[in-house]
Amino acid sequence: MAEKDPDICSHKFPSASQVWEELRELWGMAFPITAMNCLVFVRAAVSVLFLGRLGSLELAGGALSIGFTNITGYSVLMGLASGLEPVCSQAFGNKNYDLLSLSLQRMVLILLLAVIPISLLWINLQSIMVFMGQDKAITAMAATYCLYSLPDLLTNTVLQPLRVFLRSQKVTKPMMYCSLIAVAFHVPLNVVLVVVMGLGVPGVAVASVLTNMNMAVLMAGYVWWGWRKGEMRWTFGIGDLCSGIGPLLKLAVPSCLAICLEWWWYEIVTVMAGYLPNPTLAVAATGILIQTTSMMYTVPLALCGCVSARVGNELGCGKPYKAKLAAMVALGCAFVIGIINVTWTVILRERWAGLFTKDELVKALVASVMPIMGICELGNCPQTTGCGILRGTARPAVGARINLGSFYFVGTPVAVGLAFWLKVGFPGLWFGLLSAQVACAVSILYVVVARTDWEAESLNARMLTGLEMGECRDKRQGHEKDEEESKGLLINGGDGNSNSIDEFI
After folding, report:
1. Angle, alpha carbons 79-48-373 (nearest 5°)
2. How far apart, in whole angstroms, are the C-alpha atoms of residue 87 and residue 490?
3. Which of 249, 386, 439, 476 has the greatest CB tally within 10 Å of its CB?
4. Where do the domains of the chain lie?
5. What is the pLDDT along the chain (505 residues), one digit of tens a residue?
6. Spatial distance between the Cα atoms of 168 and 177, rounded to a whole number of angstroms
7. Buried b / exposed e across 15-42, counting CB within 10 Å, b at 16+?
8. CA–CA gap between residue 327 and residue 319 (Å, rounded)
């Protein structure tokens, strides 16, 4: 049984000093990650800006390609990489540094295999879009952007796992600085490739590829520097890599589904908006609202990743009640962020759309839906944070099931029913999102707050990562343990892996 923290017990509320210390720990990680997410958002906005300068056809084609690549590529790679979170965070808390480096290498190999079918989809974007009835001129432009973005798939096979690898070790400021340096060169790259060299849409795509490549190289360079200084241990072994891929996939696939099911639903909203009576107006308003939600999502996304690392770290080092404290503090912060989002969306609803368009009809439509979107964020922030907690406890499949039921069996029928059957129109789509977020938040909060046995999760973390360090301590204390029980599930790779790993998902 994991040793209880003497200051935090299940039947006793934590003290104000303990909560404050956890807040400092959590936001010490989350602020740099939020800044990094904002920089990534700025990079995407710059790309759209340069596409807009090229012309309406280039902008439409680029937007179509960005949506397609997000759905079929980036969301999948980011989702799979998030499967590293429970393993790396718990291994770091457990001081099982060999498992950290091996898991990173395994995930890179998994993503390399995943980009093969994704590449085939990207190469055939034009034929797929034409088959679906899209405009041929726009589709041809989108296919060009997509083709020149292909190298970005390889870059993300390293970049996405590196982000999880470093965040799990509380290394967040270097990630922010690496992103800052890379994004600082993004505008000059666009100027040179698009304006000076006149490459047009291919130039915008290549600039994005090079910016991501710079991020990956800088982060990999930081890891190499840490290894050279002895601050990071590194283990490599072909046998260990192959034996651990299966168990890691059992965490990566549900993590991917949990992220993609929500991400894809926003794209479905855009498609449904195109079938409303005034599709041009509805799609334009949807674009503004989704860009707004993406901006607001940067903070919950950072909180999600950091609480996953905090919970995993504490469970890995045998402190279940500190893990519970980290989870509860993060959920409290998520509710505060949600309230802030509701407040500003209500106050600025009449002015916000003016930053994106001069069309009065679009501005009026956005203003009518902004408060609904704000209330959605009141559910989205705790829901996103709850998904991070579930990943930190190695239960991503629970989050995937909740997202599937909430968005597709609650949100979609409500959105379709209100928007089309009851003729509510555009606001009906966002009431559908609101119902999905409410169902999702309530379900995840129930699982995290009421149904989580933190002592059991600590034991699961012990089994998941293995306790070579703990085994040595037990031997020094005279408690001999069976060697096979002390081996990590993901290092062993034996027949016991499949049976035991099922308990975590």
Report:
1. 60
2. 9
3. 386
4. 22-456
5. 444 444 455 456 778 888 899 899 889 998 999 998 888 888 888 888 888 788 877 877 887 788 788 888 998 999 999 999 989 998 888 888 888 888 898 999 999 999 999 999 999 988 888 887 777 888 888 899 999 999 999 999 999 999 999 999 888 899 999 999 999 999 999 999 998 898 888 999 999 999 999 999 999 999 888 777 766 666 665 556 667 788 888 899 999 998 888 888 887 887 788 788 877 778 778 878 887 888 888 889 899 999 999 999 999 888 899 999 999 999 999 999 999 999 999 998 888 888 777 778 888 888 989 999 889 888 889 999 999 999 999 898 999 999 999 999 999 999 999 989 988 888 999 999 999 999 999 999 999 999 999 999 888 888 877 643 333 334 334 433 443 433 444 444 434 333 333 333 3
6. 17
7. eeebeeebbebbbebbbbbbbbbbbbbe
8. 13
Cα separation, 375 vs 368, in Å, equals 13
Which contacts of 395-400 are long-range, i.e. CB under 8 A and separated by 24 or more positions? 395/504, 395/505, 396/82, 396/83, 396/86, 396/251, 396/254, 396/255, 396/258, 396/505, 397/254, 397/505, 398/447, 398/505, 399/254, 399/255, 399/258, 399/444, 400/254, 400/255, 400/257, 400/258, 400/261
Kindly give the interhelix angle for 151-167 and 201-228, rounded to the nearest 10 degrees. Answer: 40
Sequence-distant (6+) residues with CB within 8 A of 238 are none
Q: At residue 477, what are phi and psi to the nearest 5 degrees?
A: -90, 0
Instruction: Of 228, 197, 264, 277, give the one whose Cα is nearest residue 404.
Output: 264
Buried (b) or exposed (e) across 449-479, using 16+ Cβ within 10 A?
eeebebbebbbbbbbbbbbbebbeeeeeeee
CA 79 to CA 301: how far, in whole Å? 13
- Residues making up the chain, counted from first to last: 505
How far is the C-alpha of 193 from the C-alpha of 180, rounded, in Å?
20
Helix, strand, or coil (residue 242):
helix
- DSSP structure string for 431-449: HHHHHHHHHHHHHHHIIII
- Which pair of structure tokens corresponds to residue 420? 């089309």
The DSSP call for residue 420 is: I
User: Alpha helix (H) ranges present in 229-274?
Assistant: 238-273
DSSP secondary structure string for all residues of 337-379: HHHHHHHHHHHTTTTGGGGT---HHHHHHHHHHHHHHHHHHHH
CA–CA–CA angle 315, 318, 323 (5° rounding): 40
